[in-house]
Design goal:
The chain is α+β, with helices and mostly antiparallel strands and 229 residues long. It is 55% helix and 17% strand. The protein has a four-stranded antiparallel β-sheet.
């Protein structure tokens, strides 16, 4: 047993680690799916939400006995629900005109709720929610492969010079294949005059057409082409 107003350090540590475990579980699925917010981001959101809930419940215990003090544990934690929307919106906006970031935004919102629940000591609903979300995310990809034209997601990394015309040429080459559709792309600087372009695409089957990879590899300015997933 422990004092309701002053829990011991083991209780606080347990809740924070449980939040990290459940948030990381969902984040791991997002990570292997190459989403903009992955393992680390989900852990941070979950643990941060749990800490805010702990502060809301126990952070003002010293003032409870003061006259005219109103204790409302939900006041601070309620701001997480609205505040997490900004982080979720960022994962959508960075995809340009696509809406592929919606699932990740929703998973961040759920992970925030899991963190709040864990911080309040409601382990069972937090664990059940984590399990439901994880299964839901996994089942969708399984259905994609089994029933919807057996399309799978692949990630193609291309290292190229910083000539802006290269991107349109690469998109044109990839778009020629009827079995391939580009879902999103990310451009990262990989040196002073080199960039890495990451294409997330859907393909029929499990591997990209070797001819497509060869055509990209022989483009002027391309130094390396690699299918990483």
């Amino acid at each position: 047993m422990y004092d309701v107003l002053y829990p011991n350090y083991w209780i606080l540590t347990e809740r924070l680690f449980m939040a990290a475990l459940m948030g990381g579980f969902i984040g791991w699925e997002r990570e292997i799916n190459h989403s903009p917010a992955g393992f680390r981001t989900h852990i941070l959101v979950s643990v941060g939400s749990a800490l805010i809930m702990l502060i809301s419940i126990y952070g003002f215990s010293d003032f409870v006995h003061l006259p005219h003090f109103t204790f409302d544990p939900s006041r601070i934690s309620a701001q997480v629900v609205s505040g997490i929307g900004f982080l979720g919106a960022g994962t959508i906006l960075r995809q340009g005109v696509t809406v592929s970031g919606l699932t990740t935004a929703a998973s961040l919102w759920v992970v925030a709720a899991v963190g709040l629940s864990t911080g309040a000591g409601f382990y069972f609903p937090a664990a059940i929610t984590t399990l439901i979300v994880f299964i839901g995310l996994i089942i969708r990809r399984w259905l994609d492969r089994m029933f919807w034209n057996k399309k799978t997601r692949a990630v193609l990394e291309v290292w190229t010079d910083n000539d802006v015309t290269r991107l349109s040429e690469m998109v044109k080459i990839i778009g020629k294949s009827k079995s391939v559709s580009i879902k999103k792309l990310r451009i990262e600087e990989d040196g002073d005059d080199t960039s890495k372009i990451t294409f997330t695409i859907k393909i029929k089957g499990t591997k990209l057409d070797a001819q497509l990879l060869e055509e990209l590899q022989h483009m002027e300015g391309i130094t390396r082409v690699e299918q990483v997933y």
